[in-house]
Amino acid sequence: MDSGAFGRAQKPPKVAKVKNKTPAEIQITAEQLLREAKERELEIVPPPPKQKISDPDELADFQYKKRKNFEDALRRNKNVITNWIKYAQWEESQKEIQRARSIFERALDVDHRNITLWLKYAEMEMKNKQVNHARNLWDRAVTILPRANQFWYKYSYMEEMLGNIAGCRQVFERWMEWQPDEQAWQTYINFELRYKELERARSIYERFVYVHPEVKNWIKYAKFEERNGYIIGSRRVFERAVDFFGDDHMDERLFNAFAKFEEGQKEHERATAIYKFALEHMPKEKATDLYKAYTIHEKKFGERDAIEDVIVSKRKHKYEEEIKENPSNYDSWFDYLRLLESEGDAEPEIVRDTYERAIANIPLVPEKSFWRRYIYLWINYALYEELEAEDYEKTRQVYDSCLKLIPHRNFTFAKIWLMYAQFEIRQKNLQAARKILGTALGKCPKNKIFRGYIDFEIQLREFDRCRTLYEKYLQFGPENCTTWMKYAELETLLGDCERARAIYELAIKQPRLDMPEILWKAYIDFEIEQEESEKARALYERLLERTQHVKVWMSYAQFELTLAAAQQEDSLLAVAAARAVYQRANRSLRSAAQAVGLDVATNKEERVMLLEAWQAFESDYGDDKALEAVKNLMPKRVKKRRRIQTEDGSDAGWEEYFDYIFPEDEAAKPNLKLLAMAKAWKMANETTTNNETSNDENVQNALEPQPGASTSKESNLSEQNVDRDDTSESSGSDPE
Questions:
Q1: Pre-mRNA-splicing factor Syf1-like N-terminal HAT-repeats domain spans which residues (predicted)?
Q2: Average per-residue pLDDT in the chain?
């Protein structure tokens, strides 16, 4: 039967199908159900019936049943202490003290470590004024459980309430032998103070601060002495506390309290000495509050120097915190070192040690941007050793260490090399200075090192060395125009003009220069100073072969104008020469405009600049006819509009701009129109030649202007007549 039962397929349990799964309109919570049940009082339990006992037999029967119930409960589980306590309290209510005492004793046999059981037992004895029983019970309790502070508190309280002061003191003494917590000692001290036993309280404090050697307990002891008028004793307690904790376990709370005590006694010098002693021997991070208290004290009672010392100490502490948080914060190191150096009585060893700590924080990334601030630590260190400490050998060691540290293959600092060389010069050691700069040029040649080395040799009047250095410098950077100019200036000062001219010639022949215009100007000025006007004019001509810049033309014209005045020649010739330069410049710029197109804005600006300079020249030196001729060349300034296109080629609207229309360009437009018509006629003839097989009518039509040719001619004319169309647009017509 079992196998058949298990063989049959079990049907799944039926689950009630919920047709409507939407939530109810009114939601009912469990809290609401409980509230309604409480309001309707659905769980009312009727009170037990009251029984009145009228005779001793009935009382005995009631007591028998009650005791039987209690005993049955204890037999079921004797480890439930609450049953024992209820049983004993019921016997107490029946005035059966002996029975209650017996029940408590039986309970103690079951669990003698239960604190509640002892407390209930002792409370019963005290409530029934059984003093000796209670005293014996407390003795047993504190003997069995000496670490239970409740027993000692209640025992001492009972003895004090009974007026047994000696017995209470004896209880406290027994308690203190177990070295309880701080509150127990404080309770004992308060007990003695209630009865004016100051000496006993002092002796308790003496034992207390050694059992619990904490700063706050020593401070309490000192305040106790101060509160009771023992000022010397309070000071002695503070001093003993300082000696007790020593230098290894110093606490700012102790020194702060000690200083405030002395301040309260008007002993300001003592307070200041305490503050200084603590700040000198304690770590800075553990003396924050002490710094604040010291500052406030000095502001109240100190002198100006003392206040400044406090502020300096506080700033030192601040910098130490910043450096500890971020050792690579070089700005904090600079401020800290500047503060140490500003102190008049600062020891060199302290400053030197701080510098060593600062330079030990080498940047981790070998990039010059991260080393720029760091390298100034070495510079300041070297300057301090040289100027303040006057230790020249140490200064030389600082420079050597710095140069060994810098990764010269990646980058270098020319300032360090130059300062090291200047230091050796101040020490009158020229050979060492030259060796340093030569090493710098060999390891990491830089423009600044070359210039510094050359200036150094110039000051020493070693011109042959200067020439050698300039040659090396030019090999290092031949595109540097400033180097060529300085080299030529040196030769000029030495009176060797041919060498200077040769240097300029080599310079302008270089394939690549950074500032060629400055170099050419310097070369021309050199020839002018040497009164070589023909050579200067030749230089202008050579320069114009390379560039047609308007400023070159203007400078050329000014040169021709001032040349005659300098040589005291006829001014008319000078004016004619300058005018000829302006005319050449105008023709050159106009031909350049025709070569690149009429719509080049830069070319037009240059032409306008040239004409304005020419007009100013004619107004100063020319006659009315020449001035009128230049005015006729001046362009008209018109406002135009043009389309703006974005990067993707879409139309972005129109913008206004100013354009210049030159009379010479306007006069050339009819010729351009004639050329366009000739081109159209030529195209028509070519079409006629290619269509020889057509009839006469077609030939005659071919000889006439073709529609396509007309269209192309009109388009060409429209392209060539840009200025006229733009002018019509500027007159106010719609561009569309």
A1: 317-479
A2: 80
